[in-house]
From TrEMBL:
Its EC number is 6.3.4.4. PANTHER family: ADENYLOSUCCINATE SYNTHETASE (PTHR11846:SF0). This is Adenylosuccinate synthetase. Plays an important role in the de novo pathway of purine nucleotide biosynthesis. Catalyzes the first committed step in the biosynthesis of AMP from IMP. It is found in: Cytoplasm. Mg(2+) binds at D13, G40.
Length: 428
């Protein structure tokens, strides 16, 4: 009954889509457990490139059943648009299962996300503006709308009216916006609910039965470790738990059913939005990494902040997720550099930190301590065995492995599906 969790080990955009898709061809279910359409995966299959936000990347694999777990916040309009977009390109989405307990991103959540960010000015989080935080806030405040509520008109009206009672006051009096009309909102939500109905199911039961039957389930995290509401760089984080524990709470599967936890790390680091980032580059090397790695957000199109590999972050990711394997992506982007710096520790006001300072004031002051590794110039995109990589490239990977405290089991060497070196099988 293999349960495999796949998460981002840094600040997101590590290339999880490619890793998920690679494993996804061999699994029976791919279940997303957190976040919403703030995520963005690009999956490249042949000449086709698919930008996915809400759908699990397993949707592209014909043999896997894609699942949206209860821990995800679902914007029904976005989900339906994504389904329509894929179906028009010949991808069958009829296998999709959506948890009836997942919370809904309502139209007012999107509005609140945008106005509160604007209102915060310099103190903004730099959210994706998709309504993620406000939807999770309502879930925790126990005034959220769940997918199953979309099928009970009276219950839905009652809940929307209750939620808008306070929110409309805030929108009108504090933010100078128009109030949401309860009835129009209810009708809009009922209409999308009707279209979503065929996909809605008791996904916790389905996944548990599947695991009991010896099927393989891949639990796919949105965002990443350093954006976790508990373990990330709070408050510059997302509003869910992208770390491995979130796979259990976000799908209704117990920890005893998880056999493997795979972390995806880029061979360097990127971040979008605000918040501390010790290895961030402000010079031409940062520009170079952005250009070489095409580092622009799939969801917002924002240029990503770029920096060197941060081994302190990776060691921390190994710790808080209990990683068993790392998939290292975009190694090819570093080709052509004479020397490659790796951040091995931090200097915080004259004190060396080998481990992540959880005090955010200390983390914000952290300066990277670098160790230099020699680079390589050879094209590595056609290499399929670790031993065939240039020696300096092998040394770089081995160094990252040693510093991360977890084995590197696969290495991404280019954007195509087959641009990958599998060092250890991710499935046995
Ligand atoms: P939110 O998730 O839209 O509330 O945004 C909170 C923070 O998480 C912001 O800094 C976003 O840029 C970041 N974020 C959210 N989703 C992703 C993602 O998929 N990749 C990278 N950063 C993300």
């Amino acid at each position: 009954m293999p349960g495999i969790v796949l998460i981002g080990a840094q600040w997101g955009d590590e290339g999880k889509g490619k890793a998920t898709d690679l494993i996804g061809t061999k699994v029976d279910y791919v279940a997303r457990f957190n976040g919403g359409n703030n995520a963005g995966h690009t999956v490249v299959v042949g000449d086709e490139s698919y930008a996915l936000h809400l759908l699990p990347s397993g949707i592209i694999s014909p043999n896997a059943t894609p699942v949206i777990g209860n821990g995800v916040v679902v914007d029904p309009e976005v989900l339906l648009e994504e389904i329509d977009g894929l179906e028009s390109r010949g991808i069958d989405c009829s296998r999709l299962l959506v948890s009836e307990s997942a919370h809904v991103i309502a139209p007012y959540h999107r509005m609140i996300d945008k106005v509160t960010e604007r209102f915060a000015g310099k103190k903004k989080i730099g959210t994706t503006g998709r309504g993620i935080g406000p939807a999770y806030a309502d879930k925790i405040n126990r005034v959220g709308i769940r997918i199953s509520d979309l099928f009970h008109e009276d219950v839905l009206r009652d809940k929307v009216s209750n939620a808008l009672h306070q929110k409309n006051q805030m929108l009108v009096k504090l933010y100078n916006r128009r109030a949401f009309d309860v009835e129009a909102t209810v009708q809009e939500m009922l209409a999308v609910g009707e279209r979503l109905k065929p996909y809605v199911a008791n996904t916790s039961l389905i996944l548990n039965n599947a695991l009991d039957d010896g099927k393989t389930v891949l639990f796919e995290g949105g965002q990443a470790t350093m954006l976790d509401i508990d373990h990330g760089t709070y408050p510059f984080v997302t509003s869910s738990n992208p770390t491995a524990g979130g796979a259990c709470t976000g799908t209704g599967v117990g920890p005893t059913k998880i056999n493997r936890v795979i972390g995806v790390s880029k061979a360097y680091v990127t971040r979008v939005g605000e918040g501390p980032f010790p290895t961030e580059l402000f010079d031409e090397s940062g520009e170079w990494l952005r250009a070489q790695g095409h580092e622009y957000g799939v969801t917002t199109g924002r240029p990503r902040r770029c920096g060197w590999f941060d081994a302190v972050v990776n060691r921390y990711a190994t710790q808080v997720n209990g990683l068993t394997d790392i998939v290292l992506t975009k190694l090819d982007v570093l080709t052509g550099l004479k020397e490659i710096p790796i951040c091995v520790a931090y200097d915080v006001n004259g004190v060396r930190y080998d481990d992540m300072p959880t005090d955010q004031t200390a983390f914000a002051a952290a300066k990277p301590i670098y160790e230099m590794m020699p680079g390589w110039t050879e094209d590595i995109s056609q290499v399929h065995a670790f031993e065939d990589l240039p020696q300096t490239c092998q040394d770089y990977v081995k160094k990252l492995e040693e510093l991360s405290g977890c084995r590197i089991s696969a290495i991404g060497t280019g954007p195509q599906r087959d641009h990958i070196i599998e060092v250890h099988s991710l499935l046995d």
